[in-house]
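Session log. Operator J.P. requested a structure for one protein chain; no other inputs attached. Running the standard single-chain path with token output.
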Amino acid sequence: MATSIFMFNLLVLISSLFPASSSQVVLLPLTHSLSKTQFTSIHHLLKSTATRSATRHHHRHQQVSLPLSPGSDYTLSFSLGNSNSSVSLYLDTGSDFVWLPCHPFECILCESKPEKAQPLTISSTASTLSCQSPVCSAAHSSLPTSSLCAIAKCPLDSIETSDCKSFSCPSLYYAYGDGSLIATLYKDSLSMPVSSQKSLVLSNFAFGCAHTTLAEPVGVAGFGRGVLSFPAQLSSLSPQLGNRFSYCLVSHSFDSDKTRLPSPLILGRYEDKEKVINGDETEFVYTEMLDNPKHPYFYSVGLDGISVGKKNIPSPGFLKRVDRKGNGGMVVDSGTTFTMLPKSLYDSVVAEFDRRVGGSHERASGIEEKTGLSPCYYLEKVANVPMVEVAFCG
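Structure written below.
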């Protein structure tokens, strides 16, 4: 294939690139936006998520210098400053910037988007960031403060004397694979309820306020490895939580009789990692994160292979490592519903699975056409389906 970056989605425990030190833990609910949108059948849902996953993956082929297109159905809610209203943003580990729509707000080419956000009115406690702020420099690809002050039209004598604090950081342009925005940087206190009587408050939290976007109607909480991402600011503003977070994305149910449980987002980590289950001590199992020089905000891992039953199918060498050009590896992406594999590996996995299941079960070709997913089978009773296991490097 033309590119060698692939994506997958799973329960993850992630350490960012920032100092960590503590054992406090905060658990927050992630809400599945499908509970508020127009999907009424499992076939419609699968078709939509399969199409979006493929689109998000292919946009990585075309614009390898851009973050992943936000598309997660899982939203994180919080409030800013003295505002009484809550904002909900997509949680996205494939990007590293936190932004939200602000009043007045215009979204170009958003007529067909199912989700629409209520633009936020900036709180009276919010303040723009100075062009001399390190956050401003980070947002503008590490431009020197002298250049940022010049862009902000600070007088030359003030630039030379490093006295441009009263000049606001210039607006920034941020692009995804299939959309973009222009935002102004602000800082304000961010508050997230962690219980009925307690909230997590982060002072001087930096975020982008967007008045115009292209095909991006909902804001994004970037959880990537960049210095402006949500976990990076969390580790700086609330060091007792450290730099770790984990999440478990709970499946959406169309059964009205079932309780729709929120997906937990856990900020921080217990120091006593061992836990006794049925008399046995267990602990987390880790795989090494790969550094990507082209996309430093990505969480990349190496894929060693996939097993179907006892049959091990090794992955191509480029999925096991990332080269100096940023090619290779697998990207952990909360905004992609399905795992994306190179065709050769995918075909091998499907062929082995079909060899074990297809002989005794009829292929559901009609369902495959409706959903865009395969292989699918008709099952009249509980079937003996082979275990599919994914093995990571390290």
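Operator note: The helical segments are 42-62, 134-139, 145-151, 156-160, 230-237, 343-357, 365-371.
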